[in-house]
Amino acid sequence: MKKLVLLLMILSLLITTACWDMIDIEKRAYVLGVAIDLYPPNPKGREGDKSEARQEEEIPLEKTGLHNGRPEYALTVQIPILQKAQSSSFSGGGGDPESDATWQITQIGNSFISMNLEMATRTNLIPYYEHLQAIILSEDVARAGLKNVIDFFVRDPEMGRRVNIYVSHGEAKKVLDVNPRTEDYSSIYLSQIHRNTRKTSRMVEKAGLNKMLNNIDLGLDFILPAIQSTKDEIKSNGAAIFKKDKMVGWLDELELEAVKFILNRYNKGLITVTSSAMDNAIIALDIGKSKTKIKTSIENDLPRFDIDIEVSGSYAENTRVYTQGDQDIDLHKTLEKDFEKEIVSLCENTIKKMQEEYGVDIFEFKQLLRTREPAYWKEVKNKWEDLYPKIIVKVKARVKIDLIGLTS
User: Fold this and answer.
1) Which of 9, 216, 232, 403 is least buried, going by the fewest C-beta atoms within 10 A?
2) Domains in the chain, start-ordered, CATH in brackets?
3) For position 2, what pLDDT does the model report?
4) pLDDT one-digit tens code per residue, 174-183
5) How many Cα atoms are found within 13 Å in the side-chain-facing hemisphere of 279?
């Protein structure tokens, strides 16, 4: 009987004991976005805005705290002001230009965990990163090297490895300061923009922290989404190019399309040409399917890559000319050749730029060579950096116009 009573007492203790480390949700500071800039920032022209007066008040707080040496970075976190978000939802939602739905806290330093702890001295809430939507790096930070800034985000157990990484043209903090028209929080707005990669290949798919770390650990070249911001908009604007962990340049949107063609990752998009067969009309092809195969071989002791791109799509639009009811098979064959030339030219120019200007292999040629020509790769792997600008790359494209759209 005594044993039964003792067992019941132990069970009751287990059932009634609360979590010792439980924190009420209203006491958490849910960090939605992180921006990292160099400190002090490079001298550039800045637009005046309403926040300048507030920044003058914040600067002394940003500079407080202990630093090991000269502060090198400015860390900004975006925290939602939940009370204002709730009142906004009752009034119809959307951004209110006269009321901030978030609080951007900036702290300078050279240790990110130290800066994070210093922020805790400036708010009555506890910073919490499990719902982090975006990490935004300025161009200056990206060019200085990712290894300098990612250690904190890798080690912190609250950080999700799928959080998306972006590189901004200009100051990263300004992206968090954006007041979107269709969303309360710029970090969520940014993370949702890339859902449109299903509609266009002029955007980078979500680039998570885990994938970026894998590329760095393997010594691979890669790209991250590039973004630009205004007062109330954020635009996906091509990609930032990385050689190992340091940014070396930019891809524009058309060059990004070429990369996706080559990597067989083209989803949907448009190719436009000016056709001499139709009085220099501008013709648009709405691409529905794209498939790429790459053949590897060795020619004159140099790697050769033959890229074969097959594309099919719909005749989507023409301008400068009226063609309703005036199209035939011969015209479509001519247009198909025009589109093929455009795709080949776009891919060849992008490959040449990567080889000669940046020396980066974002096309994964190295991985193909290593798996398909292992004996040759063993001979050249230690001199790949010198060999890469000399490799032979040939591009061929085949285009088929399946539909001509509705004309009546």
Assistant:
1) 9
2) 25-251 (no CATH), 255-403 (3.30.300.210)
3) 54
4) 999 999 988 9
5) 6
Can you tell me which residue has the tokens 């776009």?
Answer: 346
- Amino acid type, 103: W
